[in-house]
């Protein structure tokens, strides 16, 4: 059962019991009955506000975890002005920055190795050189292929 469902179930049961009790207890005194109903409605309003303040940030963080699962390290959150949520956002953004740095460090050697591999392929394969339009590479077409490559 999700947290949202538990919270809503708790609030609904609590307010239903309060409504029934207010009807039974204050059946004789109409003024107390009306006052208790107003308080219950105010409690429902506060419960709804709490629900939005608790559940919406959790939904936002769930979207962030989905982005991490998809290996999208570019998703960052903007501060909301609520202390607790801002602390979570700071930690999340810091974690995303660190993951991005680690990913960049891991990809740098791979990118360099791919560049070296492409460079040796293009030196050995005249057709690969001809496919590129760089003037430096076109000039190398006129030079003979080295013995190590061909």
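Sequence proposed for the structure above (150 residues):
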């Amino acid at each position: 059962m999700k947290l949202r469902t538990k919270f809503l179930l708790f609030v609904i049961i609590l307010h239903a019991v309060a409504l029934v009790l207010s009807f039974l207890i204050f059946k004789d005194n109409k003024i107390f009955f009306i006052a208790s109903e107003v308080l219950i409605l105010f409690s429902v309003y506060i419960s709804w506000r709490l629900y939005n303040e608790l559940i919406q940030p959790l939904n936002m963080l769930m979207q962030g975890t989905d982005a991490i699962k998809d290996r999208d390290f570019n998703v960052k959150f903007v501060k909301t002005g609520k202390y607790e949520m801002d602390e979570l956002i700071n930690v999340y953004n810091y974690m995303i920055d660190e993951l991005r740095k680690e990913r960049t460090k891991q990809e740098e050697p791979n990118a360099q190795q791919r560049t070296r591999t492409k460079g040796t392929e293009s030196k050995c394969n005249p057709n690969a050189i001809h496919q590129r339009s760089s003037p430096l590479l076109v000039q190398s077409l006129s030079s003979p292929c080295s013995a190590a490559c061909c």
